Amino acid sequence: MNVTLNQLEVLLRVSRTGSITRAAEEMNLTQPAVSIQLRNLQRQFDMPVTEVVNRRLYLTDFGRELARAAERILDEVQAIERRTLDLKGKMTGRLRISSVSTGKYVIPYFLADFLRLHEGVELELEVSKKSAVMDDLAGNRVDFSLVSVLPDALHLKRIELMPNILYLVGRAGAPLPAETLDARGIGELPLIYREAGSATRTAMERFIERRRIRVRKRMELTSNEAVKQAVVAGLGYSIMPLIGLGNELAAGHLRIIPVKGLPLRTHWNLVWLADKRHSPVGEALKDHLRMAKQDIIRQHFGWCEPHWTGRYAAADRPAGGRH
C-alpha cells in the first residue's frame, strides 16, 4: 500500500463536501486533478471507496471509515508540523472563520497583518449567506464569524470592527425626480433587492416598511455583486453597503443618492459564542484586533470615513438586532 497524504486530503474533502467539484474549489485544484487522486487511492483497495447513485457521488461504508482514518492521520501530521514550529518559537494553529457575503470586502484586511506576523497559523475562511454563517456559529464549527447584525437567539461576545453604512445608490447620470428624495420617493424608482434572509435585504425592507413606502417595481438578485452590476447597468436602484462600492464610486459608475432618513447604520462585528474557549491563536487574534483595528481602518478604509461623518451622516438604525 502506498497511500499519500494528498490522497487522504482529497478523500476527506470529498467526504465533507459530497462533491468533487467543491472539493477541488476548496483545495485550489482542478476537478480532473482531484478525480485522479481519488482514482489512485481507489486502486489500492479491493473494496469500493465511492459509488455513484442517481449521478451523485457518495462514500461507501468502507469509504466513510477510510475518511475517518484520514482525518485522524492528517490531524496528527498537522500536530507534528505545529509542534515543529512551536519549538522554533513561532505561533501555530488553525483559525476557522465564517463571514456573510458582503463581509468579503472587510475581513481579509483585518486578518492580513496577523497572518503575516504568524506564518504558522492556518486559516479556513468560509464566505456564505447569513443563514449558513449562523448555523456554523451556533454549531461551534467556527471560531469566529463576521456579521453586521447580531442575532438575538445566540449568546455572543464580539469585537466591533467598523461601521457598516448603507446608502441608496444608482447609476451615475440616471435621471431622478428630485435632487434629494423624500423617503416615499424611493417607491417611484425600480428597486433591486438582495435575496431573502440577507442582512442587507432585511435592513432595506425594514426601512421601506417602517415608512409605508409602496414599491412600484422590484427585482431580486442573489448576491451583492449581482445587485451592484445591475445598478451600474442602469436596471434600477438599491440600498447597499458602502463598503463594497469604493471602486465604482471612484470611477464615476455609481453615485450616492441623498434620501431623507438614510443612511442606515450598523457595525461589522467579529463574534463568537460567549462560552467558547479559544486556542492561543484565537486569543492572539482578539488581542491583535483590539490593538490594531484603528490603524487597519485608517490604512484600508479611510475613503469611507467622510461618509460616516459627512453630509450624508443622518443615521436611521434598522429595528431589531443588537448593535
Characterise this structure.
The chain is of the alpha/beta class and 323 residues long. The protein has 3 domains: 82 residues, Arc Repressor Mutant, subunit A (Orthogonal Bundle); 106 residues, 3-Layer(aba) Sandwich (D-Maltodextrin-Binding Protein, domain 2), CATH 3.40.190.10; 103 residues, D-Maltodextrin-Binding Protein, domain 2. The chain has 11 helices and 11 strands. The strands form 3 sheets. Strands 3, 4, 5, 6, 9, 10 and 11 form a 7-stranded mixed β-sheet that branches. Strands 1-2 form a two-stranded antiparallel sheet. Strands 7-8 form a two-stranded parallel sheet. Helix 2 crosses helix 3. The protein is globular, with a radius of gyration of 23 Å. The C terminus is likely disordered.
